[in-house]
Amino acid sequence: MRTIKRDAPILLEVNNLSTDFLVAGQEPAHALVDINFRLREGEVLGIVGESGCGKTTLMLSLMRLLPANGRITSGQINFMNNDLLDLSEREMGDVRWKNIAMIFQGAMNALNPVHTVGRQIAEAIIQHNYITDKKAVTDRVVELLELVGIGAERKDQYPHQYSGGMRQRAMIAMALACNPQVVIADEPTTALDVMIQAQILELLGTLRDKLGLSILFVTHDLGVVAEMCDTVLVMYGGVTAEYANVDTIFNAPQHPYTQELLRAFPDLTKPMEKLISIPGYPPRLNALPAGCRFAPRCPHAFGRCHVEAPPLHGVQDRHFASCHLVEPESNISPETPEFPGKSNEL
Amino acid sequence: MRQSRYLLKKIGWALLTVLIVILLNFFLFRILPGDPARAGIRDPRLTQDAVAAIRERFGLDKPVINCFESLNPVKFGSCGVNPLDTQLFIYVGNLLQGELGISYHTNRPVLDMLKEQLWNTVLLIGAAQILAIFFGMGLGILAAWRARTTIDYTALLASLTFWSLPTFWLGIILLFWGSNQFGLPTGGKATPGGNFATVWQEWADVGRHLLLPTLTYTIVFLGEYMLIMRSTLLDVLSEDYILTAKAKGLRTVQILKDHALQNAMLPMVTIIALNLGFTVAGAIQIETVFSWPGLGGAIFEAVGRKDYPMLQGAFLLIAVSVIFANLIADLLYSYLDPRVQAG
User: Fold this and answer.
1) Nearest Cβ partner of A94 from B240, B249, B262?
2) Which residue of A5, A161, B263, B283 is surrounded by the most CB atoms within 10 Å?
3) pTM of the complete model
4) Which tops the pLDDT comparison, A319 or B278?
5) Tens digit of each residue's pLDDT (9 = 90 or more) over A138-191
6) Quick one: what percent of chain A has pLDDT higher than 70?
7) What value, to the nearest 5°, has the Cα angle with vertex A229 and ends A57 and A299?
């Protein structure tokens, strides 16, 4: 197993990021509230939660690609010591793909059906002036396709001539076109069958090791998390439920939501154990509960949970959970140096 | 290989459609009551011989087809009429030689009449269509790009208004306003009895006559093109691959140009092709209002005069242009969207 480089330099540092969706004639919906995380060089951070928990909103906020009614209301996105929220739209355009690339969920529609795959990859290379010579661009396209296991002769084919798995590979090749430091993979294996899923995950794992990529891996598959990720951010209803390294999340989860998620996931060592499902649904953004957002579904909820939203408590070294039950005697708030990333020796 | 098969298939279907249209068109005018001789019979001065002579002149003395029994292979040739000596055979034979018959009214070959009028119509509609496509698409792109802003709502309101205006009404209003305010001609293609020193002056005169009908036609079609362009472009802009293009760091103009427009052109091509086909006939209202000597006006007059050969020729011309425009659209599809050939 890979060892986490605990002292690798921080690439991406997100502080108290909040995003609202404006709805005409209504209060803005708080889609993300005070999200914090650090991504180090070579680290794979898994972002986990049910559908509708704000995972994709978080990724789109990082890229500043929110739909027209989305607004980032507060926070910082520090990428290599620049706050991305301070950049002009044009400067942000230069950061996109060159520094932070994205693999979308369901590559089915993520590729333009009327252009060849090769052209769409070349477009990214040319856009960021990585190479300009025509021959060199073609060579690079071929090199990228071969990197993800697609034959060079298929570069002049259209997306509809590719299978689902190949489209996702082509998407990965496109994401790597400008040698980005960070790759955001938004559910890259959703809508693929299990065999292809395994191939794509293996490919991503190889590329991570070979190219030293930092990956933000959005998924709701805990098996993928265990296999791929170094650290995990569990999201619930737009807030951080728990944030820790992968071993802690699986072996000593503190937040009831994480515990329930793990119980809802089959464990091969205990095949006879009954799987549970968490009753109810994640809260709708326009009807958030008053206190803790998980309280209505939480098996351990008590009076205070329904009134007061718990802050993110530091449980121990690099382990955070937002639950009243884990409140330590000395409250470690995100502002204290113990928060991950603020201190380099952690 | 695949491309040429697609091409051949489409051309084959177009030819088959033309063939069916020729047959339908032929029988349509044989089922309708009336011919020039019968119209003349009411005139007591016309002798039986004269009626027979008129019938013979237009070939109406011959049977339409030899007889239905002859279609039965067992009784083939049983009705005693030479199949080569029927109206259908003569009509198709003439058609292959490029003859469309002789007008009942003017006694001139239909083909010559159609040629003149078609050129006039193409002059009027060609100019107006190009303007309508250019401005309609431009306005549609602008509105979609600036969706839900004042620009968008203004363009939308204007286009909806233009689209719903009755063509003849707009024509009359513009005719009134243009001739009153700017002294533009009220009708026709050229100043009657005009004497021009140079070809340029003659063309300038035609241009002045063209101005108002072209404007009317442009306004009517601009609205439709704008609305369709706007709505398809908005659809395309919400696609996942547009988000990919944004994430790739492409600028807005690049996204519109390289990723949105080509995808949004499919419905536009359909509408343009259909309009081009139908407008050969559809300019009737404008041509009537502005007394423009085009195909639409000629059809309108031919209906009143029961000039069947003329109508038959015009209908065939319209049908062939619709089929041809659709063929062009089909070929454009395969260029615009590579999935079309696969499907």
Assistant:
1) B249
2) B283
3) 0.81
4) A319
5) 999 999 999 999 999 999 999 999 988 899 999 999 999 999 999 999 988 877
6) 92
7) 70
Say whether residue B230 is in contact with chain A using an 8 A CB cutoff.
no
Structural domain for A132, as ranges:
107-179
Does residue A294 form part of some domain?
A: no
Q: Tell me whether B251 touches chain A (CB under 8 Å).
A: yes
Q: pLDDT band for position B185 (50/70/90)?
A: confident
How large a percentage of chain B has pLDDT more than 70? 89
As given in the structure block, the two tokens for residue A211 are 């190219």
CB contact under 8 A, A97 and B251: no
Handedness of CA A335, A336, A341, A343 (dihedral sign): positive
**Pair B264, A86: CB distance under 8 Å:** no
Measured between alpha carbons, how far is B333 from B265 in angstroms, rounded to an integer? 9
Assess whether pLDDT exceeds 70 at residue B282.
no
- Which pLDDT score, from 0 to 100, does residue A342 have? 39
- Residue pair B245/B83 in contact (Cβ under 8 Å)? The answer is no
Tokens of A233: 């951010």
Contact A96 B249 (CB under 8 A): yes
Nearest-CA distance A188 → chain B (Å): 14
pLDDT score recorded for residue A288: 84
Q: What is the rounded average pLDDT for all residues in chain A? A: 86
Q: Is residue A328 over pLDDT 60? A: yes
- CATH number, domain of B324, equals 1.10.3720.10
**DSSP single-letter state for residue A128:** T
Contact residues on chain A for B249, CB-CB shorter than 8 A: 93-98, 124, 127-128
Question: Are the beta carbons of A63 and B247 separated by less than 8 Å?
Answer: yes
Q: In total, how many domains does chain B have?
A: 1
Residue B342 pLDDT level (bands cut at 50, 70, 90): low
**A223-247: b (≥16 Cβ within 10 Å) or e:** ebbebbbbbbbbbbbbbbbbbbbbe
CB distance A124–B251 less than 8 Å?
no
CB-CB neighbors (< 8 A) of B244 in chain A: 102, 104, 110-112
Asked if residue B267 is part of any domain, the answer here is yes
Q: Is residue A144 part of a domain?
A: yes
| Chain A residues touching B262 at Cβ < 8 A | 114
Q: Across the beta sheet with A70-79, what order do the strands follow?
A: A29-40, A10-21, A70-79, A82-83
Instruction: Decide if A106 contacts A100 (C-beta within 8 A).
Output: no
A170 at the B interface (CB within 8 A)?
no
pLDDT tens for each residue of B66-86: 666 555 666 555 566 666 778
- Of the ranges A227-236, A318-327, B69-78, B133-142, which one carries the lowest mean pLDDT score? B69-78
- β A70-79/A182-186 pair status: unpaired
Domain that residue B233 falls in: 110-342
Beta strands A29-40; A239-245: pairing state: unpaired
Q: Is the dihedral of CA B293, B299, B301, B307 positive or negative?
A: positive
Phi, psi of A130 (to 5 degrees): -60, -50
Chain B residue closest in CA terms to A97: B248
- Interface contact B338, partner A, CB < 8 A: yes
* Count of structural domains within chain A: 1
Question: Using CA atoms, how far apart are residues A211 and A176, in angstroms rounded to an integer?
Answer: 10
Between CA B62 and CA A94 the distance in angstroms is 80
What local confidence, expressed as pLDDT, does residue B306 receive? 81
